[in-house]
Amino acid sequence: MKAAEDFGPWLARQLRNAGKSQTDLAEELGLTRAAVSAWIVGRSVPRDETIRRIAEVLKTDLETIHTRSADAQSGLPVSWYHRPAHADGGREYGNAAAFAFEADVSVLAREATQNSLDARLDTAEPVRVRYTLHELTGEALARFREAIDWERLLPHYEALTTDNGKQNKVSRTIAAGLRDMYQHDRLVLLRVDDYNATGLTGGDYEDGLFAAVVRRQLDSHKKDPGAGGSFGLGKATLWAASRLGLVLINSTLSEPHEGRTEGRLIGRLDLPWHEVDGREFAGPAWFGRPDPDARSTDVARSWWADEATVEKLHLTRESTAPGTSFLIVGAHDVASLTPVTGTVDEEGTEDDDSVHRMHARLVDALGRNFWAAMTGGGDHKPHLEASVRTYRNGEALIAEERVDPAVTQPSRTRALRAFLEGDTVERLTAPGQVARATVPLNVPLHGGQVRGGLPHEAVLLVTHAEDADGTPNRLVSLRGNGMTVKDNAVTNVPIGTNPFQAILLTGRAAGRDAPGAEAAEEFLRASEPPEHNKWGQTEELRLTYSPSAHRRIATMTTAANNAVRDLVAVPRAKRRSGGEAKIAGRLKVGGSAKKTRPSGAAVLPELDNVDALIDGTGAWSVTVDLRVSSGVDTDRPVTPIAKFDVRSGPRPTAPWKDLVAVSGCEIIDGSLQLIPGSRKAVFRGVTDVSRHPVRAQLSGLVVELRSGKGEQA
Predict the structure, then answer these.
(1) What angle do CA 622, 625, 628 make, to 5 degrees?
(2) Is 505 helix (H, G, I), strand (E, B) or coil?
(3) What confidence tens digit (pLDDT) does each residue in 568-577 have?
(4) For labeling, which of 241, 346, 373, 568 is most exposed (least CB within 10 Å)?
(5) Distance CA 516, CA 480 (A)
């Protein structure tokens, strides 16, 4: 028999389900109400003979009472409760919170994973998040529809999709979902599981995580100033990602409710106002057991499900670790526009809701937004582990793929790990190094004070970029929860700079012992919009701090960009002499300087300076300064030729894609026409990466000047 202390809550729940009071049970057992009350509050437990009599009264067996793994009231079926329309005639045509985000699995991954991070239970261990795509067809789909009591839902869906229904965005989305399911006999489920999380604790209606997620809107129930979410909007992405507006939930609680922790189930349906058989409904509906304590016997509340029911609803969790599983029914991805291998159907048409495509986009979004949360180093463990898997009718279609930050964001992961392990340098002198600097943030005081503040030192990390990182020369900013908040280009980078990636760690991310870390967390969190994708002016920032508080963020951003440029700039002397081939290349004028110029040969301009870099496309981008002596014939064109500097054999030509005159010259038919009287000429050139014989990163660059007109290859 389970511990005695959970008998009372279990018995109280059974009495509510049966519509009995403590007095009713006492009379049927021939005992006093005080004896029953003592069981309920846990002061005592009934004897074995009394337990047998309780089983008879509750119409259950002894095993159910001893294990208390299920409710005794099998006569209370799980059903749908649809909220009646407002008595005053008010109508809502959808959940406004769901329109704050796109119905995009990338957005869903960002918001749902952020919520899981905020709910991490044991902060010494990572929260584990797994996304499971499951495509149901045929018999498997029919069994699932039966499990969710589809026939009771269908009239409400049909009321929204008929010609005389109120057609709006939600109605059109539902119509498309129904059409896809019936025409293609297919339904996509997307389940989000987290482990080592708090679970949906608290009562069905009282203040708590359960009510905040399932019953309410705009209730984040997050008190930690370092939490990622703060608006209570992110949970709406779960319902927005469902074409049917339907999400089922199974939660394992970190603290008991009604004496239990495992298998707390509920379903929520978000629809617009509609009318069925002459009755008006507000829109929201819940899938659960009738609530005996509610004013209306139709009201549904969460229930403790048995294993068979959980399996039929595709909500089986892999362990007893606390956390929650959200099952999005009819998942779709309106932003799936980038082709992914294997997403073309037999008729040759691309399917935007292909599970292959959605799988790839989930992996990409998790790696792009949470690479920092998944990175550990030294005595710092990752905050997050994430994976994606895909099934079709119970069979693995794509094996579980764990998101590896070292693969999705190699340079940034290397930089953060070096910081955590104390392996940074003051300036980059070799590939693979990570340079560190500090950036000041003057955190304002509460209450409208515009002067003074708390000093905070954010940490800036810079390292060389790799191809897998995506676009180079970016500055990514984040707070303590490890989710990317800002991702901006670093502008005005000196020509001749190696491609790089930069990271700005603020608040707790800069280290728990960093001065002003907690104050910075609270300040920057208040400056984030619902998408949590930037720092700037918000209403909360104005009310909590001052109307000008956002300027301190701008000051920090400017300082961070200046510090990046300082860390990556190549010293002038190094650029003039060529230095490393990948930084500035090598530039030769008219071939080898040791050769004697033939009599009568044209005098060419002389090299003054060259700046070169490999841009984001992989092309060489060069800016060349030429000194024009008095002996140069400015009427004679000069043709610049770019070549790859290989170790042996002839140097292959790197054709120009663009040539632009900056000063002292003009570009005519791919050649430089010097302006008479000029003593200096500057031009810029970008090679055609599509015609590179080798990757630019694998070779140096030589620029030659030839007399006469040439062709811009």
Answers:
(1) 145
(2) strand
(3) 876 544 443 3
(4) 346
(5) 13
Q: What's the pTM?
A: 0.73
Q: Parallel, antiparallel, or unpaired: how do β-strands 500-505 and 680-687 relate?
A: unpaired
Average pLDDT score over the chain: 83
Do residues 301 and 204 lie in contact, with contact meaning Cβ atoms separated by under 8 Å?
A: yes
Structure tokens at 561: 């960009």
Rounded Cα gap, residues 558 and 538, in angstroms: 19
Query: H/E/C letters for each residue in 378-416?
Result: CCECCCEEEEEEEEECCEEEEEEEECCHHHHCHHHHHHH
684, containing H or E segment = strand 680-687
Q: In degrees, to the nearest 5, what angle opens at C-alpha 216 toward C-alphas 166 and 229?
A: 110
Assign residue 89 a region (left: φ > 0; alpha: ψ between -120 and 50; beta: otherwise): left
Within 13 A of 473's CA, how many CA atoms are on the CB side? 20
Alpha-carbon gap, residue 331 to 316, rounded angstroms? 18
Q: Which two tokens stand for residue 202?
A: 């608290």
DSSP structure class, residue 257: B
Handedness of CA 91, 95, 100, 102 (dihedral sign): negative
Residue 62 · residue 50 · CB < 8 Å: no
Q: Is it the case that residue 288 has pLDDT exceeding 80?
A: yes
Give kind and range of the element (H or E) at residue 191. strand 186-195
The rounded distance, in Å, linking the Cα atoms of 97 and 415 is: 37
Reference 406, options 361, 378, 360, 375; nearest CA is 375
| Whole-angstrom distance, CA of residue 133 vs CA of residue 389 | 6
Q: How far apart are the first and last CA of the chain?
A: 85
Could you tell me which residues are beta bridge partners of residue 395?
392
Residues pairing with 401 in the sheet: 388
Q: Got the DSSP string for 7-76?
A: HHHHHHHHHHHHT--HHHHHHHHT--HHHHHHHHHTS----HHHHHHHHHHHT--HHHHHH--S-S-TTS
Task: Find where tokens 């005595």 sit.
Answer: 379
Residue 427: both structure tokens together: 């300036």
List pLDDT tens digits, range 6-23: 788 878 878 877 778 889
B/e letters for 465-487, b = 16+ CB within 10 Å, e = fewer, are: bbeebbebbbbbbbbbbbbbbbb
SS3 content of the chain, % helix, strand, coil (to 5): 30, 25, 45
> What is the rounded CA–CA span in Å between residue 102 and residue 104?
5
The kind and range of the H/E element at 574 are helix 572-576
Euclidean distance between CA atoms 411 and 170, whole angstroms: 42
Is 90 strand, coil or helix? coil
CB 383 within 8 A of CB 473: no
* Element housing 568 (H / E): helix 550-568
DSSP summary character for residue 166: -
- Give the count of beta carbons closer than 10 Å to the beta carbon of residue 49: 8
What is the C-alpha separation between 61 and 18, in angstroms, rounded?
Answer: 15
**Strand partners for 621:** 613, 686
Using CA atoms, how far apart are residues 362 and 357, in angstroms rounded to an integer?
9
Q: Max CA-CA distance within the chain?
A: 127
Strands 384-392 and 127-137: parallel
Half-sphere exposure (Cβ direction) of 5: Cα atoms closer than 13 Å: 3
